[in-house]
Amino acid sequence: MLIPEGPQALTSEWLTQALRQTGTIKNAVVSSFQTQAIGAEGEGITGQTARVKLVYDSDETAAPHTLIAKFHAADSKIRDAFNSFRAYENEFRFYQKVAIQVETPTPRCYYADFHESGLTVLLLEDLAPARSVGGNINPSQVELAIRQIAKLHAFWWEHPQSDDILGKENMSVIKGVWNHLQNQVQNNWQSFPELTRDNLPQEMIGISQRIVNNWIAIADQLLYHSPRTFIHGDFTPDNFFFATVEGGVPFALIDWQLFKRGRSAYDIGMLLGGLPTEQRRQTEQDLLKMYHQILVENRVEGYTFEQCFDDYRLTQLDAFARLVFVMHAPLPGEDLDRYRATDHKFREVELPRRCAAILDLDAEKLIPK
Which residues contact 81 (CB under 8 A, 6 or more apart)? Predict the structure, then answer.
């Protein structure tokens, strides 16, 4: 089957064939459907997403009446960039080979396809009326999310099948990608202090420069050195769905494009370091100890709490470098409303929180010499 270019290229015939291939429907035919863009005209940073409402010619109990269709980015340059990081392929592999083996709640995948060019399509369960809480996550929801990801980490800890699932890493290719990222973040740094002058603490300027100059070494320690497991890679509240008063699943984790191997505490650091500073300060030690205990109870050996804590601290440095990488002044022709919303989130919410975490945790002491 050809992979559609996006929601606008879907047809009733294609949807019928895709859902039949996986046994989602047996005899029914998709007679009509409607699509509704999700997000800013359905186009996120990495791809296109739409809710699809389906009408069948006959009733089947298991047939979904709505689903979420997720595609590659429409812009070929953006698609090529994310494809070079294997973002589309890794999400495809997660749903094909990992989601069915673990208890971590994720949307059911009705159909998936990927081409090495970066073309990709996922037909996923619509989790509504559950929804993302975004930045309004409460302490009990944080704990629930950590308990769930800990089970995935423990299950795949140094797992012998990980190479079969994601493929063996070509370190020469990886080195080339990271050299590009390093150059880009160093270029961005030239304007970063001025761009963030009201939000970057003075004591962070020197530390920031060292983080930027050593991003490759920081990422190398977190992603390519044992002990490793499968990690979500973007374990933040935007990707958590919780039940609402209308119902829905108690918890589900979405958006696996940054799925990869790495140190397990990376996911925990991405979550806790982005929380409101006082909430993080009050809860991080207890949550980290709870997380580490779950690993131990699930037969993870040789990973001390001290090592877990250092990996958690190191993650704050990586998260800061990623902010330098993505933040920028408005580009010619860029949608200013969309830019302002994203810039506000990065500059006025996440940046102060990540800086506070780095300073509170003395994380700069872990920057490679």
Answer: none
Mean pLDDT of 265-271: 98
- Mention every residue, 6+ apart, whose C-beta is less than 8 A from residue 229: 152, 153, 154, 156, 157, 158, 159, 261, 262, 264
Q: How confident is the model at residue 344 (pLDDT cuts 50, 70, 90)?
A: confident
Structure token digits, residue 363: 């994380």
Distance CA 261, CA 94 (A): 12
| Same fold: 7-125 with 131-366 | no
Q: Is-above-0.70 flag for pTM?
A: yes
Tens of pLDDT, residue by residue over 228-265, are: 999 999 999 999 999 999 999 999 999 999 999 999 99
Q: What is the C-alpha separation between 222 and 149, in angstroms, rounded?
A: 17
Domain range summary for the chain, segments of one domain joined by +: 7-125, 131-366
Q: CA separation (Å) from 206 to 75, 202, 320, 325, 364? A: 37, 8, 13, 17, 10
* CATH superfamily for domain 7-125: Phosphorylase Kinase; domain 1 (3.30.200.20)
Q: Which amino acid is at 327?
A: M
Residue 288 structure tokens: 């980290």
Query: What CATH class has 131-366?
Result: alpha beta
The per-residue pLDDT for 113 is: 98
Contact assessment for residue 214 and residue 368, using Cβ atoms and an 8 Å cutoff: yes
In sequence order, the 6+-apart residues with CB closer than 8 A to the CB of 19 are 25, 30, 63, 64, 110, 111, 123
pLDDT digits (tens, 9 = 90+) for 107-145: 999 999 999 999 999 999 999 999 998 888 999 999 999
